[in-house]
Amino acid sequence: MQISDSSSRILAGLLEARTGQQLTMSRRWRIETALSALLRERGIATLDELITILVMGKERGLSDQVVEALLNNETYFFRDRTPFDTLAKHALPSLAVKRAAKKRLSIWSCGCSTGQETYSLAMLFADHPELWKGWSIDILGTDVSSAVIDRARSGTYSQFEVQRGLAITQTIKWFEEAGDGWRILEPLRRNLRFQVHNLLEIAPQPRNFDIVLCRNVLLYLSPEKKTLAFDRLASAMAPDGYFMLGAGETVIGQTSKLVADGQARGLYRLDGRDKGDRRTGDERRNAVRG
């Protein structure tokens, strides 16, 4: 199935307008694979026919389905494992001391897709109840896709999805059988919440997160939008909070808001110059106008 250059550009423009993500030339090979199921479901013969329908606006909700299909929702439990070990060995012990008086932590998993990262974070705490007894642990998972957020809220996964990253003992401990798949047990879901959110927008509440994870999401943004995203993310952090990117990502040359943590590779902190006022430029201007 072929797609013309003009149709490819229209799809790329639609995705960027809705989500901020770029569909670069090197990624446009995904278009046919990503949209094939939608074409079959809608009875549309070719990708160019799909573009014609989109441009004419005949099919209500079709553009939303196209954007959902084009998003990269790759994820699995304890993805890459090392970042979770870093959190467990460095960030969490440090925060346990700093927050000992209030016994309250808030964590934001940005671009959480179908929720595996968010539930993996919950397991870090649930596997050591003696360390976190009496604590309030609030974990928020967000994604620009409403479809994957609905799946994350359901907490239900296929056998294949559960096997990716989890030992059999963890499956038995934290899941119950649900039809042909597995559902996260209620005790693990209790402190989790999910919502649709575009990271280019104002950060969600409580906007004073102790840990912010945004792994393998910013890769798909243009340099300008990436800078805006870093501003949004930094504005959501507690002054002494931690930030984490994907293994192949960096803040170097991308933002002045964040600097590498000197104690643990893979973690970042707010630059000391930004701790006094962590609002974005737009927020500061709006406050002055108000």
Automatic annotation (TrEMBL):
Start and end of every CheR-type methyltransferase domain?
1-273
Disordered, as annotated region: 270-290
Domain of life of the native organism? Bacteria
Coiled-coil intervals, chain numbering: none
Which Pfam families does UniProt cross-reference here?
CheR
Q: Which SUPFAM superfamilies match?
A: Chemotaxis receptor methyltransferase CheR, N-terminal domain, S-adenosyl-L-methionine-dependent methyltransferases
Any idea what this protein is called?
A: Protein-glutamate O-methyltransferase CheR
